[in-house]
Structure formats: C-alpha cells, structure tokens
C-alpha cells in the first residue's frame, strides 16, 4: 500500500493466533503510536479502494446491475474471484491474499454461519437466525445463477480475463466463500454516488474490529477513505469501528461475532389479525388508521422489553373485539383505544405469556446450561458464538414474559376467566 500511494499512517498490522487449528493466525490493525480522540489513524487513497465504479468503470452499468438482479456484494465478489485467478499478476493480489487469510473471520476468528455445516447450524436451534441463514444462503444461490448476466451486460470488464463465463469458471461453493468474505469486510460509505456506496478498503474490516458502542466510522473524504478515532488508544491496541445499528443476529450472519454490549440488539415478533374473523376488514381499517398493518412486525429492543409488550397490547386487544356493536364503537372513536373488559385483558395477556413460553421452549438448552457452556474455555468457537446469541435472545424473551406476568398481577380481579374468542390474533 505504501508503494502505491498510501500516505504515512498511525497504524500497524499485528497478529493473534486463531481459535481454530485449521486456520492460520488472524491479522488486525493496531495503533502504531498513542492516539487521541480526533486523530486520523489512516487515509486510504481512492486508487487503493475497490468499488463498483472501479470494477465496472461505468456508473450507469453499476446502477443498472444493482437495481436489476444482482447485489453490489455479488458484483464485488465476482471481480475479486477473477482477479484471484490472475495470481501475482493482479494489482490486488496482496489484498486478496489477506482476505483469504482472514476467510471472513471476525474478532472471534469465527466465520459467518453461512459457511457452517448443517450440524453446526443446529447450534442455533430455536433461534430465528437459523432460518435467516438458510434464507440468505438461498439468496446467494439465486445471485450465483444470475452471475452470467454481469458477463453479458459488462462485457468490456471481462475482456481482460481469458476465462469462461462465471458459472463455468467458478463453482457455487467458491462463489459463496467469496461472497461471505466480501460481506464481512465491505464498508458502507455515506454521501457518495451509488457506484461508490459499497467499498472494500484495505486496512478496513476485517482487520479492524467492530463494536456497537463505538462512534468511529470509515468516511469518504476528498480522494480518500479515512478513519478518525473516537477514543484514545495506546500503541499496540486493536482499533475498532462502529458496525451500524445492527442486532446481534445480523452481526453473526455478516461478521461471525456477537456483541454482548449491543444496545441495538432486538427480537422480532409478528402479529397478524385473523383473516377468518367476520370483522377482519373493519379491524384492518382501524389498524391502518393507527399506523399498523394487518400483519404487523413489533421490535423488542434489549432493555426495553416492557415497552414492547405495552406497544403490542392495543393491537392485540383490537383482535379480541367480537361484539359487532363494540366494533362500531371502535370505528367511530377514531382512536386506537378498544373498550377493554377484564376478561379481554386477561385473554390478551395470557396469549402473550403462552407465546413467550412457547418460544423459549423451542431452545434445546436453558439459560443456566448456556452459562455453563460459555464457562468452558475449550468450547468450540462456533458453538460459543451461537450460544452467546441464543443466551441473549432468551434473556429478552424472559424479560417480555415477566412483563406480561407483571401486568396480569396488576389486574384488579384475578378470578376473571379469559374471554374465549375463535379469532384471536396470530403471533409468531
């Protein structure tokens, strides 16, 4: 990089052993001297940054491709795959060699679950993340099947490569590995054109560590991408950057790690009005009037589980209205307030409690068992990161369940039976 225009910087590459004997040690960017808040750690010239504008040489083609059937990640992965075939003749050879060394591993030296075996994915049993991994893998497969589109649309790009069209030159497994490696280190630049929005920055991730409680970001400035640090560092300390407001499920999927101090962590609960309900259309109209959909997603943020439960109650109460005259009253009131009888409130809260109990029961281990596993220093790294994720999910679900139980305890009359209704809202 210094030979090709990198100005003097205040970082150095250091090495730590891998947790996995199959992989080489992992490199990381550390401060080469003491740094203060506001110092520029490094500034990488645009000539050393890989973007679609550089790859395709044409912003119009870049936008056309990425609004069509291929993501920026797929295009960047394909470019690096062809460059890798050039070996040492490629300008990017040292960078690609470093990406290969890292293999998309984050700070824990764990690869994204997209590269885990079926047996390893079982570590995520009970977590919605397991289905997210399978869906993302299907999406990567669809992109692989569309790769030849790039070949035909951007023919000028590939004239320099005397190889077959993509799906003949590369197997799906090779493409998936390249895609995951790119996904783990791509930087989302702000205030730049679409063709420069996704960038691969040498000295950036995965050599930089990600943190949820950090404010430093790689930023596009005139002619370069720079990093201004947000905290003091001693010489030799690993440098970290903000990973954006991502829940732990996305951190694991994209970068192979979980942040226990992640205030952006969240769970998703989907509630739906019952389409069998004779008053479904009226309820849908009332829901829309109050900014909700007939199938509504509720986010449960860590530390705000009680607020999430309270946010769900008006929607669920609406689903429990059964008397047509009560429904007319709700329609004419213009507000989100349903007439709440003690038996309706008990039914709504009972349904919530049962829902959280069912979700927790889907995990094969208890919280105590998770803690015991994590205390084992020899625990397989992939199992460790999966256990960290499901432990944090369970804590949020437990807090939600407790919030609903507390609300039941606050009801004036505990002897009231829940109102029966065949058209209760559906939760998943």
From TrEMBL:
GO terms for cellular component: chloroplast stroma. Transmembrane segments: none annotated. Residues 275-397 form the Rubisco LSMT substrate-binding domain. InterPro entries: Rubisco_LSMT_subst-bd (IPR015353), SETD3_SETD6_MTase (IPR050600). It comes from the Eukaryota. One of its GO terms (molecular function) is protein-lysine N-methyltransferase activity. Pfam families: Rubis-subs-bind (PF09273). PANTHER family: RUBISCO METHYLTRANSFERASE FAMILY PROTEIN, UNCHARACTERIZED PUTATIVE METHYLTRANSFERASE. This is Rubisco LSMT substrate-binding domain-containing protein. It comes from Carya illinoinensis (Pecan).
């Amino acid at each position: 990089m210094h030979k090709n225009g990198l100005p003097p910087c205040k970082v150095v590459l250091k090495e730590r052993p891998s947790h996995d004997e199959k992989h080489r040690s992992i490199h990381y960017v550390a401060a080469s001297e003491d740094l203060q808040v506001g110092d520029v750690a490094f500034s990488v010239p645009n000539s050393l940054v890989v973007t679609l504008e550089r790859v395709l040489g044409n912003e119009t083609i870049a936008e056309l491709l990425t609004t069509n059937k291929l993501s920026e990640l797929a295009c960047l992965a394909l470019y690096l795959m062809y460059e890798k075939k050039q070996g040492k003749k490629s300008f990017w050879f040292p960078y690609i060699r470093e990406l290969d060394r890292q293999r998309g591993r984050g700070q824990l030296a764990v690869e994204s679950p997209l590269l885990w075996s079926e047996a390893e994915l079982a570590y995520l049993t009970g977590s919605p993340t397991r289905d997210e991994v399978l869906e993302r893998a299907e999406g990567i497969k669809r992109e692989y099947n569309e790769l030849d589109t790039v070949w035909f649309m951007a023919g000028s790009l590939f004239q320099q490569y005397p190889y077959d069209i993509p799906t003949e030159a590369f197997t799906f497994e090779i493409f998936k590995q390249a895609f995951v490696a790119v996904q783990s280190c791509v930087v989302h630049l702000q205030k730049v054109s679409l063709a420069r929005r996704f960038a691969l920055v040498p000295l950036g991730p995965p050599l930089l560590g990600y943190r949820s409680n950090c404010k430093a970001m790689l930023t596009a400035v005139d002619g370069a991408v720079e990093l201004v640090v947000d905290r003091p560092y001693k010489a030799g300390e690993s440098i970290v950057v903000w990973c954006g407001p991502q829940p732990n499920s996305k951190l694991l999927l994209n970068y192979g790690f979980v942040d226990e101090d992640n205030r952006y962590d969240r769970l998703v609960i989907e509630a739906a009005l019952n389409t069998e309900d004779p008053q479904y259309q009226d309820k849908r109209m009332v829901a829309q009037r109050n900014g909700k959909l007939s199938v509504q997603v509720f986010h449960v943020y860590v530390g705000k589980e009680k607020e999430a439960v309270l946010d769900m109650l008006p929607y669920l109460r609406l689903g429990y209205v059964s008397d047509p005259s009560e429904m007319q009253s709700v329609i004419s009131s213009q507000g989100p307030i349903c007439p709440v009888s003690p038996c309706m409130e008990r039914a709504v809260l009972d349904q919530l409690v049962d829902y959280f109990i069912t979700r927790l029961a889907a995990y094969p281990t208890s919280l105590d068992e998770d803690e015991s596993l994590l205390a084992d220093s020899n625990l397989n790294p992939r199992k460790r990161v999966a256990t960290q994720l499901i432990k944090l999910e369970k804590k949020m679900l437990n807090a939600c369940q407790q919030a609903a139980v507390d609300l039941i305890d606050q009801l004036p009359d505990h002897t009231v039976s829940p109102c029966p209704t065949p058209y209760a809202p559906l939760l998943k």
